[in-house]
Every structure is written in C-alpha cells, then in structure tokens.
Amino acid sequence: MDDLGDHDIVVLCVLKGGYQFCVDLVDKIKALSRNSNRTLPMRVHFIRLKSYLNDQSTEDLHIVGAEDLSFLAGKNVLIVEAIVGTGKTMKALLKHVESFSPKLIKVAGLLVKRVPHNSTCLPDYVGFEIPDRFVVGYALDYNEYFRDLNHICVISESGKTKYKI
C-alpha cells in the first residue's frame, strides 16, 4: 500500500495460473485498506498469457485480452502473476504494458524459480522462491490439469507422462 500510494490501482491478473493468487491478494489489500486510515480503490482486469506446451516454455507467447490497454494510461498498475521462471514472459508483458503509458508498474509474483539468468525481470514483490521444478496446484496447471488443488506441489515424471499432450 505504501508503494502504490493513495491512488487507485488497476490490478492486471495474469490468467489462468494467477487467478487464485490474485483473488487472495486483492482480498488482503482490501482488508488492509479497511483497517487503515487510507483506502486503495482497485479495478481488476484480466489478461491471459500462454507460453507452455507440456512442461516446456515455448518462444511463442500469446497475450489474450491485452490488445487495447489504453485505460492504463496514467494509472498505477499491479501485475499479479503466479510464477516467474526465466523472466522472459514477464519481460515481454512489461514491454507491452509500458506501451500504454501507465504512471507506475509493479509486479507481484507468488513464486519465483531459482533458474540461471532469471534476474532479467524479477517481480517487485515475491511470495516464495522455489527450485527449478514444474509445480501445479493453486490454479497452476499441467495441460489444464491440477488447477483445482488447494496446495502447490511438484508434478512427478509419471504424472507428466500420464497427462502429456
């Protein structure tokens, strides 16, 4: 709340994997706002990024719902992402969002993988740092499976084989 000031913010939730973290984070910000002498009005907008096939990140990044983000001009933006690996996807998203001239951009990432060369684009706010393993649950998926788990876990090699496309 201190970083974003007294200005309303646009929360940009990165779907699909970020929806559970986004809901929980927005609820927490609202609770903090209610219990302080300041309020932080929020609008939530959703975009979808897709760059994985099975457990491999592809060079092909698809951004859906971000074609016209002109309403971000002059606004404080909080991008909420579930997981950041190499940072390439986040770097591409930040470049796209910056093209709409927001006043401020901050990134909240629930998980950051310990991978070589991920210092290119680290979130401003990090929940947990994790090993470079493929994780599922809490809205994170493997080929659309396991989003419904209430916890986060590493998918086994046999699980990857069973649910491979």
UniProtKB/TrEMBL annotation:
Tell me its EC number(s), please. 2.4.2.8
Report keywords, A-Z: Cytoplasm, Glycosyltransferase, Magnesium, Metal-binding, Nucleotide-binding, Purine salvage, Transferase
* InterPro entries assigned to the protein according to its UniProt record, in alphabetical order: HGPRT (IPR050408), Hxn_phspho_trans (IPR005904), PRTase-like (IPR029057), PRTase_dom (IPR000836)
UniProt source species: Pagothenia borchgrevinki (Bald rockcod)
Which Gene3D superfamilies does the UniProt record give?
Answer: 3.40.50.2020
Question: Which reaction is catalysed here?
Answer: IMP + diphosphate = hypoxanthine + 5-phospho-alpha-D-ribose 1-diphosphate
Q: Which locations, inside or outside the cell, does it occupy? A: Cytoplasm
Annotated pathway, please?
Purine metabolism; IMP biosynthesis via salvage pathway; IMP from hypoxanthine: step 1/1
The name under which this protein is listed is Hypoxanthine phosphoribosyltransferase
Name the protein family: Belongs to the purine/pyrimidine phosphoribosyltransferase family.
